[in-house]
Amino acid sequence: MDTGQAAPPVGHTRDGAMNARILVVDDDTALAEMIGIVLRTEGFEPSFCADGGGALQAFRDTKPDLVLLDLMLPGIDGIEVCRLIRQESGVPVIMLTAKSDTADVVKGLESGADDYMVKPFNPKELVARIRTRLRAPAADIGETLRIGDLTVDVAGHEVRRADGVIGLTPLEFDLLLALASKPQQVFTREMLLEQVWGYHYKADTRLVNVHVQRLRAKVEEDPDNPKIVMTVRGVGYRAGAVTG
Amino acid sequence: MASRLAGWALDWRLWPSWPRQVRSQWRRSLQFRTVAITVGLSGLAILLTGAYLSFSIGNDLFQSRLQQALAGSGRAFASAQSILDASDASERVALQQLMGAVRTDLQATSGSNLIAAYRAPGQDFSQVTPPGFESPGLADGVITDALHAAVRADPDSLHWQSVTLTGADGTSTAGIVIGSEISMPTAGSYEIYLGYDLSESEQTLGFVQRTLFLAGIGLMILVGGAAWLVVRFVATPIRSAAETSQRLADGNLDVRMPEKGEDELATLARSFNGMAASMQKQIKELADLSLVQQRFVSDVSHELRTPLTTIRLAGDVLYDQRDTFPPATERTAELLHDQVGRFEILLADLLEISRYDAGSIELDLEPTSLVRLAEDVVEELRPLAEPTGSDLRIVAPGGYAAVAMDPRRIRRIVRNLVGNAIEHGEGKPIVVSVDSNESSVALAVRDYGQGMSREATERVFDRFWRADPSRKRTIGGTGLGLAISLEDAVLHEGWLEVWSEPAGGSSFRLTIPREPGTEIVRSPISLPPDDAIESIVDELTVPQTRSLPIVPRPQDRQDDARG
After folding, report:
1. What is the Cα–Cα distance from B452 to B551, expressed in whole angstroms?
2. CA gap B135, B114 in Å, rounded
């Protein structure tokens, strides 16, 4: 096959940051192989798992930097796999789904997926999504920020309330950081999609809604009465006033 | 429905509304109407019978009393005359004594206390004649002149007349006065009147009437009750059928009517239940079919999309390396890439349409400013408009406030409308108007391109319909865009309409309610665009006017006609 030809040239260009390991969980071997070709061309290091039951073990074995997870899998379905992965890691998860219907996508996001891609997608889109999720956190602010009664340690990638550290996924951290870095700014969902998810065109605002809910569940003392991530009705969100 | 059962027992506290209640019961309740008619008609019959009975009994009582009185008075007059005839008194005192004896005799033989005697007029005055007398009960004109005249005209017969007697205690009773003449030796003729009291007969009649009245009332209640029971017996199953069909109509397919006995009503219940069961079966089959359809769509979605993704990725990898291929292979890679893209859009549109058909779509409502959304879409599509030369403008007098809508779907509609306008706008300006009123927000996309014929505007929302199949498409499209847009608008309970004129361009107007679920009163933007009104007015003044080619909403006609 041509795959052997395509892979080696890029194989030599590996250099640190680009050499990210990506676990592809998909039962369609042709698609998995094709995604593998694309990923190798772009300098990633893919590994594969073809069913939901083995996905968690494969995740533990390969310790990937990012997971591409098909929503419909034999054995355990993608939503459940995502939930299992989230229980032990905040590694970025991008869902691959054939269905863009509300229920499936929202279920996937609620189970902890950072982003999703609806089949069929093109290679550029796929790579762009992966790059966004893998990029190093914004290093331009090398300090600590305050939001509500929280302290955001940008360099240390940590969020603290009083003495306790709150464990956030990288995406949730990015979302909180985006709000905290401009406390006066009201962010529309579109702005957050661009800044946090890297979408430069209109995307699904449900991504923002679901992840704001997940973030609130972790950082708010009362998620029904948020003090950290405030809703600005009809516009979007902004950071809560610094307290304590 | 229980309230309707109890409904026709009137509430005494609400008496001012009775006439209205009765009228509404008359209209609504078969039972009430039947009972009312039965009671009314039988009441009339009882009234007529009672009146006849009462009259007839009263008459009989009077006649028998009259005969009795006449017989009594006849005897009395004869007896008095015989006393007079036997006497030879001629002295004043003797005559007076004689008169006293006659009075006593009259009283004894007639059985009446009411006696009056008057000396007949037209006789010579005499010192010896005793004066007449009258019982107090017969004084004060009880005896009429007519009776006097009758007695004088025919002194040998008995004459009677019905009168009103006033008793000593002032009470009035009906009575009869019978009069005749007797002659006294020496003294001459005397008119004698005897009064008979009818109060006893009256009492009897009153008793009979009271009895008849009470019996009539009782009978009416009985008839009414019987009618109520009978109608209830029939109406209850009918009402139950009505309630059951109502609940069936509300979607509760499991309800059935109670089946009891083997009469016609049981047959009704059985046939009704048979109908309901058959309906339920068919609906269930349809629902199952719809579920199968939905599952099929979902499966097709997954099954087609996964290999399509592989093809897409493969095609794109080849496409990216096309420079390194020989020319024929390079072109092949390009065609593969383009057509996979087209296939993908078509598949997505088809699946979307299938979802509408399966009714499986839920709106994801979010407060959104229609003006902002329109601005976004216009900026997004501006690069597409540049090659054609069309200038995209937004005119937004209103519509800035956030309104609950599914922004993804509304954006898709607007993108589709603006895209179409760019494609058919022939490089002329395209105006996107946004406005709002108290009930709705609206967006209209106006182009000044070639426009469409009336036939075309009627079919423009049809699936896979193309205005001009031979025309080259620049933006591409599946022929499902407007069909999907219309479905999206309908999901919002909004309107999507078109106005177009050959060579005059087109205007598509989207109107959605300000609050989800409320009715749009009228659209804030007039559908035939304001700049086209002059030409329409010209057209309307021409004798052969034609109606404006407007598509779906009949309730919008007046709005459009006025606009």
Report:
1. 13
2. 5
Contact B305 A101 (CB under 8 A): no
Cα pseudo-dihedral A82, A84, A88, A91, rounded to 10: -10
Whether B377 contacts B443, CB under 8 Å: no
Question: CA B201, CA B198: separation in Å to the nearest integer?
Answer: 5
Please indicate if any CB of chain A lies within 8 Å of the CB of B382: no
Number of H helices, E strands in chain B: 14, 12
Burial class for B548, CB neighbours closer than 10 Å (0-12, 13-18, 19+): buried
- Which residues does chain A have within 8 Å of residue B310's beta carbon, measured at their own beta carbons? 28, 30-31, 34
Could you give the C-alpha distances from B32 to B10, B232, B434, in angstroms and in order?
Answer: 12, 10, 57
CA–CA separation, B549 vs B500, rounded Å? 7
**Torsion angle, CA of B519/B522/B524/B530, rounded to 10 degrees?**
150
Q: If you write DSSP's letter for every residue of B88-154 in order, what string do you get?
A: ---SHHHHHHHHHHHHHHHHHHH--SEEEEEEPSSS---SSSPP-EE-GGGTTTTS-HHHHHHHHHS
Q: Which of A41, A120, A234 sits opposite B309 (nearest CB)?
A: A120
pTM for the full model?
Answer: 0.54
Q: Report chain A's terminal Cα–Cα distance, integer Å.
A: 63
CB atoms within 10 A of CB A72: 19
Backbone φ and ψ of A32, nearest 5°: -60, -45
Predicted confidence at residue B378, as pLDDT, reads 92
DSSP for residue B322: G
pLDDT for res B310: 92
| pLDDT tens per residue, range A99-153 | 766 677 888 889 999 999 988 888 988 998 999 888 765 556 667 888 888 888 8
- Helix ranges (H only) for A89-205 are 102-110, 123-134, 170-181, 189-192
Q: What is the ipTM of this complex?
A: 0.79
Strand partners, A151: A146, A160
B408 touches chain A (CB under 8 A): yes
Which H/E stretch holds residue B512? strand B505-513
Q: For residue B253, what is the DSSP state? A: T
Residues 214-233 of A with CB under 8 A from B: 233
Buried-exposed string B286-299: b where 16+ CB fall within 10 A, e elsewhere = eeeeeeeebeebbe
CA dist list (Å): B370 to A43, B35, B216, B307, B366 = 43, 61, 76, 38, 11
Q: In this complex, is the C-beta atom of A35 within 8 Å of any C-beta atom belonging to chain B?
A: yes
Residues B316 and A122: beta-carbon distance below 8 Å:
yes
* Bridge partners for B166 per DSSP: B172
- Residue A44, amino acid: F
Which residues in chain A are closer than 8 Å to B369, comparing Cβ atoms?
A: 234
Summarize pLDDT for A15-42 with one digit per residue, the tens: 444 589 999 999 889 999 999 999 999 9
Spans in chain B with pLDDT lower than 70 = 1-12, 14, 298, 301-302, 467-477, 532-563
What is the C-alpha separation between A202 and B376, in angstroms, rounded?
A: 9
Cβ contacts of B284 within 8 Å, gap of 6 or more: B253
User: What token pair was written down for A13?
Assistant: 């260009």
B49-83: string of b/e by CB count within 10 Å (b at 16+)? ebeebbeebbeebbeebbeebbebbbebbebbbeb
- Local structure of B467: helix, strand or coil: coil
